[in-house]
Amino acid sequence: MPETSNATQSTRSDRAAISARSLVKTFGAGENAVHALKNVDIDIRENEFFTLLGPSGCGKTTLLRMIAGFELPTSGTILLDGQEITALPPYKRPVNTVFQSYALFPHMTVAENIGFGLKMLGRPADNVQGRVEKMLALVQLEAMANRRTDQLSGGQQQRVALARALAPEPKVLLLDEPLAALDLKLRKNMQLELKSLQAETGITFVFVTHDQEEALTMSDRIAVMRSGEILQIGAPKDIYERPTHRFVADFIGDINILEGEIAGAGGGTAQVRLKDGTTISARLAEGMAQTGPAAVAIRPEAARIAGQGETADLTGTLENVVYFGAASYLHLRLNSGEEFVLRQPGGLDGHDLSRGARLGIAIQPGRARVLE
Amino acid sequence: MTETSLSAAHREAQARATRTRYGLLAPALIIILAISILPLGITVVYSFLEPGTYGGVVWNFSTDAYVQFLFERDIFDDTLTFDPAYLSIFMRSIGLAFGAMIGTLILGFPTAYFIATKPRNQRNFWLFLITLPFWTNLLIRTYAMLLIIRDEGFVNISLMKLRLIDSPISILYTDTAVFIGLIYSYLPFMVLPLYASLEKLDFRLVEAGYDLYASRWKVLRHVIAPLAKPGIIAGCILVFIPGLGAYITPELLGGGKSLMIGNMIAIQFGSSRNWPFGSAAALILMMLVIIVLLIYAASAGRGRRTHG
Fold first, then answer.
1. Which of A63, A137, A236, A240 could join A216 via S-S bond, C-beta 3.0 to 4.6 A?
2. A72 contacts chain B (CB < 8 A)
3. Got the DSSP string for A309-323?
4. Cβ pair B208:A106 closer than 8 A
5. Could you give the CA distance from residue A330 to residue A333 in angstroms, rounded to a whole number?
6. Alpha carbons A209 and A198: distance in angstroms, whole number
């Protein structure tokens, strides 16, 4: 698995498959207007697995439907391989969609479903037949070719939907929360399958999900969206370790966010005075304000209990210990009244872990970050 | 011994249950027999008799009624010559009913699609408009249609006032008038079953069709039409079969010039006083309807097999 993804990494170009410029979508008008997209700019590169991540109503599905051609933007343009496609109807775009509900044609067999796009493109019948057989093999459904779609399980329907969308060899494949209807185990398998399928076919995948874990495991890059805006675009590691926005930090994984004020800054680091009076140093991303109120974000795994003789960055009162075997989660209350969770790996021997114990917290250098 | 008596009691109880079931069925059965099978039987019998001079029948077996349908018997030497007069009325009826079916399908499909794609809370209003004509008697509605399309009617006066035409277009008492009348009368019977199947249509499938390179027309042909097929067939049957036997519309709008089967049969029992021939024509019409339904049943059966 890592080998294939490395291979795609090396062949991946920086050319944009999809570019959106100043996309705005407003539903309704006047006071009741809903701003589904507010001035979105995005470049999705060729051959990448790109994920639009955000809570429901953030505009990710609207953006996807706009790339597919089901919605016209109120303003702005969409380019595919540098060609403007903003007003092109869906059937003239070399873009296919895997729908959340699969939307398989109930009056056709599995093979007819998969061959539909090619048939509509006017490909000769034997050509279609060959391609359908290839797609059936790709999704391991050779035995199901002549079944009706309602005789398939959820996972099999998912595969047919995937094969149907891939059969016409689209430039871009859009996936609208395709795994949402599957149970957990099947979903995990399909995540891996989708990822390797993307590597195999070399097609650009644009994947929509609200599941941050899914986004982290599958994507080359993630765009985090909230209420019609893209907050941050980056590789899963960037998004997780270097969130620039409070919402991004909070939405992806567990994180402690402490309020404070910048007391001094320089060289990409800021001294932030927290509410309880302690000052900690945190990394300051480029272009961020050097003064004024700020929030500091610290992942639970970036902090641990300070050892004997070690200087503690923060001090808190222990409220709860949740034991997970390989690690434990310690819930502390800081002097400011804010809660702080840290992940303490290994055994818990040598520490006073009774409720109400005063503990020092050591933060890994460079792992505390100032948020916008 | 006990076993046989037990089973005898069991048989007795079962026989009683059967009797109760038939007893409950009897009223409906009698009504069906009395108002449908019995008259049909009489019609069959009458069709093989000779006509009475002043109506009624003379009890002599004869197949003349059926022969008369296709041939004319010379009154002097009894020779038969082919006479397509009645056949042409049948053909016109089939043509008009088929035309009305196609016409209502073309007009009704977009209407039903329009209603089915409206927000759920608005659909009942549109359906109400479709069923509104049923609140008035068909006879009165047909008279209204007569007033609209006659030479001095609304359509011709309007067109002349707009100087689009110089003299009235004669529509009334032609096949066109009957055709328009049939479409008007039977349109709701097409729209309602079409709506019923389009309403159940998953419009995400339409999107999937567009996404997979099908243009509007191809989506209609390959996705919407096959899924709305039960509604299309039901609508076609509901328009074609009553259209074939239409009486009021051709009577008023055809004005005796554009006869349909229904009018011809009525004439046989009325002014022509040829009950056996009227009965034979009615039975031929029924056979026609049965053949149409059998063809439908056969095609539907085949369809199910290929899909199943």
1. A236
2. no
3. TPPPSEEEEEEEEEE
4. no
5. 10
6. 17
Closest C-alpha among A344, A341, A360 to residue A278: A360
Domain chopping of chain A, boundaries: 2-241, 254-371
- Preferred mutation among B203, B205, B213, B305 to probe A, highest tally of A CBs within 10 A: B213
Q: Which member of B211, B222, B223 has the closest CB to residue A90?
A: B211
Cα A292 versus chain centre, distance: 31
Subunit contact B207:A120, Cβ cutoff 8 A? no
Query: Spelled out in words, what is the top-level CATH class assigned to the domain A2-241?
Result: alpha beta
The fold of the A254-371 domain, in CATH, is OB fold (Dihydrolipoamide Acetyltransferase, E2P) (2.40.50)
Nearest to A285 by CA among A333, A336, A355, A238: A238
Q: At CA A287, angle to CA A281 and CA A291, rounded to 5?
A: 50
Query: Do the chains contact at A105 and B213, CB–CB below 8 Å?
Result: no
Model ipTM value:
0.82
Hey, are the CB atoms on B207 and A70 less than 8 Å from each other?
yes
Q: Are A136 and A163 in contact (CB under 8 A)?
A: yes
Local structure of B159: helix, strand or coil: helix
Q: Which residues of chain B are within 8 Å of residue A69 when distances are taken between CB atoms? A: 210-211
pLDDT in tens, chain B (308 residues): 555 667 888 888 899 999 999 999 999 999 988 888 999 999 999 999 999 888 888 999 999 899 988 888 887 888 888 888 899 999 999 999 999 999 999 999 999 999 999 999 999 999 999 999 889 899 999 999 999 999 888 989 999 999 888 888 888 898 999 999 999 999 999 999 999 999 999 999 999 999 999 999 999 999 999 999 999 999 999 999 999 999 999 999 988 777 899 999 999 999 889 999 999 999 999 998 999 889 888 877 665 544 43
Report how many Cβ contacts below 8 Å link chain A to chain B: 65
Q: Does domain B85-273 have CATH number 3.40.640.10?
A: no
Structure tokens at B133: 């004509």
CB contact under 8 A, A99 and B204: yes
Of A65, A93, A75, whose CA–CA distance to A21 is shortest?
A75
Alpha-carbon radius of gyration of chain A: 25
The whole-angstrom separation of Cα B243 and Cα B235 is 12
Q: CB-hemisphere CA count at 13 Å for A36?
A: 21
- List residues of B whose CB lies inside 8 A of any A CB: 202, 204-205, 207-215, 218, 222-223, 226-227, 307-308
Contact A73, A86 (CB under 8 A): yes
Q: Does A148 touch chain B (CB under 8 A)?
A: yes
- Quick one: closest CA in A to B206, which residue? A103
Which residues on B lie below 8 Å from A148 (Cβ)?
307-308
Give the SS3 label for residue A364. Answer: coil
Nearest to B213 among A107, A120, A148 (CB): A120
- Decide if A370 contacts A262 (C-beta within 8 A): yes
Q: Compute the distance between CA of residue B242 and CA of residue B238 in angstroms, rounded to an integer.
A: 7
Q: Do A99 and B214 touch (CB under 8 A)?
A: no
Q: Where are the domains of chain B?
A: 85-273
